[in-house]
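Structure first, sequence second, as always.
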């Protein structure tokens, strides 16, 4: 009976005419849906059943594993007597089997790392991650604008930080073009980036960036790939978690072509802990979510929000969710009672029971189900016993997870990060060139000053020499003729002595001759 049902078998409901299978028609699965219920009521099991059911129908699936127990979908189940009895009561024969799973993890610890670039995430979602106010978001938009204008790639947070410094240093010039850029806003964004890094967000930005086709694979056996995002650590950064899933949804919307209403979805996207997406979300973000959910249907993508209470989802988005599975809710406080009323009013009433009372009386593994019929209209809500899963109830072991990753079709594609030239390297090179140019200019200026000082010193020396020469010339012109020497040198004295002696001797000889002659007479 259930094997012949044209769609995804969810479970069996009891009516006045007997048991009836509750089926989610595949050609209506892209009309989106919601799975709601309090903690411990069976939402994760329902999510596991739907993920494996879509996979068996050849539809790839993406889902987040918030608590860690969804990882059991990669291991064949070992049903106990209770589960076997439940299956037998539905006329269902359990065939324990595992789904073809690929594990992902933003931090690269329990799955293949998922990365995207800062440019792809955009200023709106990044502002959401950083919890920026309107003014700071405007400054961040300016940073993206300047990066696009100057051809600077924003790949990782280091690139964004370098761009913030660049914009801050050129705030006056940039402010004249696109508006004032306050240093206080730059500093606030930098502090928020530091907080995001401390939460592990740096690992999310970079390359190689995720390719959507690697999440939309169908195996040779015709089954769709089940992409399980390990979010046990990611949930410690709820803004990062919500922004990442919204980015992924936006990428699907922007990249996939229009296909209208296909026979089955091209991809089914489960958004667990959906309330994190809308808590304190600005109006612009809410409008973006509403637009994506409304229009992505025609891309062949079904979006299913998983949350504790449908009241966590804005009415504008909730109105787009045609397939509804509601597990038990408890209503002890006024706010919980309002949520219960909202949940019950969202169903097409069943005259056989009061919807609000039924929601409170549901047991574990039971749910109120209302799916779309062949014409796209919601079926009357039915109290349904959810079917047991074919895969394991509970988490996979580390060894089982490692084995799945070792056989993964994307093994090695994303495990090693790539750091190519982008804004940080280009701005660093520019700064290095500017510093080198400034150093060269400073050196040239120092050399010019030294040359000028040397020339000035040489000129001063030349002037001094000229002055000294002029002084000497003036002194030489005023000096008297040199006095006659009266002092004899030793040679002159000796010569004079010799001549004097010789003269005396000659005189005596002459006199002696004369006198002698006179005597002889």
């Amino acid at each position: 009976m259930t094997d012949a049902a044209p769609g995804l078998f969810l479970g069996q409901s009891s009516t006045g005419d007997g048991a009836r299978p509750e089926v989610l028609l595949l050609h209506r699965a892209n009309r989106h849906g919601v799975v709601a219920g309090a903690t411990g009521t069976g939402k994760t099991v329902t999510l596991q059943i739907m993920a494996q059911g879509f996979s068996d129908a050849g539809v790839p699936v993406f889902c987040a594993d918030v608590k860690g127990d969804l990882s059991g979908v990669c291991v064949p189940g070992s049903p106990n007597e209770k589960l076997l009895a439940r299956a037998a009561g539905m006329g269902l024969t359990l065939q324990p089997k595992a789904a073809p799973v690929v594990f992902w993890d933003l931090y690269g610890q329990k799955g293949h790392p998922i990365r995207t670039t800062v440019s792809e995430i955009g200023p709106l979602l990044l502002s959401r991650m950083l919890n920026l106010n309107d003014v700071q978001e405007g400054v961040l938009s300016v940073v993206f604008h300047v990066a696009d204008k100057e051809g600077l790639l924003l790949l990782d947070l280091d690139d964004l930080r370098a761009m913030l410094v660049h914009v801050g240093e050129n705030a006056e010039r940039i402010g004249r073009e696109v508006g004032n850029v306050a240093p206080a806003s730059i500093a606030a964004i930098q502090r928020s980036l530091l907080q995001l890094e401390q939460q592990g967000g740096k690992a999310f930005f970079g390359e190689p960036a995720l390719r959507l086709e690697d999440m939309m694979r169908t195996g040779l056996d015709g089954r769709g790939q089940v992409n399980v995002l390990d979010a046990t650590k990611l949930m410690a950064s709820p803004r990062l978690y919500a922004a990442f899933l919204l980015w992924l949804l936006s990428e699907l919307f922007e990249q996939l072509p229009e296909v209208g209403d296909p026979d089955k979805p091209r991809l089914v996207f489960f958004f667990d802990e959906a309330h994190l997406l809308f808590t304190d979300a600005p109006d612009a973000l809410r409008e973006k979510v509403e637009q994506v959910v409304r229009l992505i249907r025609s891309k062949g993508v079904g979006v299913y929000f998983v949350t504790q209470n449908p009241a966590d989802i804005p009415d504008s988005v909730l109105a787009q969710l045609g397939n509804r599975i509601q597990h038990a809710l408890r209503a002890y406080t006024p706010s919980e009672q309002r949520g219960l009323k909202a949940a019950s009013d969202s169903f097409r009433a069943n005259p056989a029971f009061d919807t609000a009372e039924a929601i409170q009386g549901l047991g574990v593994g039971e749910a109120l189900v209302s799916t779309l019929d062949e014409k796209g209209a919601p079926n009357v809500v039915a109290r349904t016993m959810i079917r047991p899963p074919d895969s394991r109830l509970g988490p996979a072991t580390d060894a089982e997870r490692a084995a799945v990753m070792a056989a993964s079709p994307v093994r090695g594609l994303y495990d090693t990060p790539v750091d190519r030239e982008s804004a940080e390297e280009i701005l660093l090179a520019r700064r290095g060139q500017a510093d080198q140019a400034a150093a060269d200019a400073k050196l040239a200026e120092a050399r010019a000053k030294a040359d000028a000082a040397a020339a000035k010193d040489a000129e001063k020396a030349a002037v001094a020499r000229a002055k000294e020469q002029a002084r000497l010339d003036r002194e030489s012109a005023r000096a008297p003729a040199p006095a006659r020497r009266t002092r004899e040198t030793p040679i002159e004295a000796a010569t004079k002595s010799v001549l004097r002696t010789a003269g005396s001797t000659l005189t005596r000889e002459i006199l002696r001759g004369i006198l002698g002659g006179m005597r002889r007479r």
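Margin note: Residues 423-478 form the longest helix (56 residues).
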